[in-house]
């Protein structure tokens, strides 16, 4: 991995941007690559593996119980991931290109945390089944950032009030937020992936 601080997978592409792929609990650096290649063909992909293990399952930050996040650890892990992304851009010759995140579940929560804690890192994010991971004070300035949130109406892991808290925080920070509620649980359904592809096609250079 050339000295970079996360086990990761990089897939080059000709388009002038970078898509950061953040897997869900128990996933790895390969999980989202095939999906991203379908949703954003030709975009360079950077897919790190979460460093935190929960009963052997990789995650991007600790949780104290289901739905209860370790905010101190989240802040540390978000800073580590942000530094890794910057180093990887230099390593792979992508300095200065806009970075977007695509995250699912725990990875979507980490992508939201990157927006809220390290707003200069990302131009936008596709958040699949996220909740509000933390409440930074003060809120960052996310003017010009584009965020798409795909939520499931029957998702036990991302209840509506926690998703709406995320939407409110992002909008108050100035992000251009699009949210779609799907008649689904935590798993992703085919129609919403088509909508996600359309959003990425409008946003990515």
TrEMBL record:
Pfam families: DLH. One of its GO terms (molecular function) is hydrolase activity. Keywords: Hydrolase. Its EC number is 3.1.-.-. InterPro entries: AB_hydrolase_fold (IPR029058), Dienelactn_hydro (IPR002925). Residues 98-191 form the Dienelactone hydrolase domain. Gene3D superfamilies: alpha/beta hydrolase (3.40.50.1820). SUPFAM superfamilies: alpha/beta-Hydrolases. The keyword Hydrolase applies. The keyword Transcription does not apply. This is Putative hydrolase MhqD.
